[in-house]
Amino acid sequence: IRRSVIRGCGAYLPERVLTNEELASRLDTSDEWIVSRTGIRQRYIAAEGELTSDLATRAAEEALAASGIAVDDIDLIILATATPDETFPATATTVQRNLGLRRGAAFDIQAVCSGFIFALATADNFIRAGQAERALVIGAETFSRILDWEDRSTCVLFGDGAGAVVVEAADGNGGSDDRGVLATCLHTDGVHHDYLYVDGGPSSTQKVGHLRMAGREVFRHAVVNLAEVVNEVLEATNLTADAIDWLVPHQANKRIIDSTARKLGLAPEKVVLTVDRHGNTSAASVPLALAEAAADGRIQEGQLVLMEAMGGGFAWGGALVRW
Ligand code: ACO
Predict the structure, then answer these.
(1) Domain boundary among 140, 171, 202
(2) pLDDT band at 89 (very low <50, low <70, confident <90, very high)
(3) Ligand 1 midpoint to CA 17 (Å)
(4) What is the set of active-site residues?
(5) 107 lines ligand 1 (CB under 6 A)
(6) What are the positions of the active site (predicted)?
(7) Is 193 found in the same domain as 146?
(8) Of 171, 189, 204, which residue constitutes the final position of a domain?
(9) What CATH number is given to the structural domain containing 167?
(10) Which residue's CA is the nearest one to ligand 1's atom 31?
């Protein structure tokens, strides 16, 4: 059967670092509060005029270089973002243009913090169906543009960045020893809209709006939904948690990540953590973490990598990949 094998990863973070101390100098908050509640110590903020497509292009270029695949051989670009450059066209087409690519198809996917899992699942399905051979799957965000910088309960949590992977079709025998994406599971439940949303948009207000979140409610649902979806991807492959080499979770909050790892019985050394330095970069957080752990040699060929994410919608999902 056809599999989608990850051939390379890339990452890009803006230059500007915003520390908790700096936030505490302008808001009624403290490094102690932010670190103890979330594990976040700093985040990166895009420069004025630096767009989601710019971040995405840098990450995509790095992923292409790491994969050894020529840009002209890419026939699909899927960009997960909740902060597109414009309402339209799709930011993915701007990345396509920036890369000098004029073939194939490029489009955006919007599943907020779960966007990369949704994008990877979509690319995998295109590849399995024989409709694509080599895809760029990108998560890129400039959440700094949609934050209410006066609201200490949300603005301390997020950051900007981009991560990307190149996936390529390969033949597998259909077993869990195959390299590539072994299973993906996606879910949404629109009933929880009011717990996490942006109070603007082209059809509702014609304003960009700001992120609004009932943090405690999101937290409560996240630990339950993530535990369920993680079991679901394992069951889909007939694998058990002890087979997992790396957990690469969405990086929203260290306490949520610890809860998932604990339920799986995974040692902390098997969890890739970037939330301390990146904050919550929404759709970029999983591919940024993948890129870091691939570049420093933690994730090795043949190892089993479990990814999971949950965010606005609510939308949540998991992916199990043999590297
Ligand atoms: N500094 C100091 N105090 C603060 C801050 C701050 N930055 N923010 C809130 N507080 C105060 C609140 O006002 C509240 O004070 P009160 O009790 O006097 O009213 C107190 O701290 C406790 O607030 P809670 O919201 O109950 O704090 P909690 O322990 O739940 O932590 C947090 C809040 C970090 C947001 C947590 O709920 C969380 O991480 N939720 C999940 C968020 C998440 O995972 N989002 C992922 C999806 S994001 C996406 O999809 C875009």
Answers:
(1) 171
(2) very high
(3) 22
(4) 113, 250, 280
(5) no
(6) 113, 250, 280
(7) no
(8) 171
(9) 3.40.47.10
(10) 37
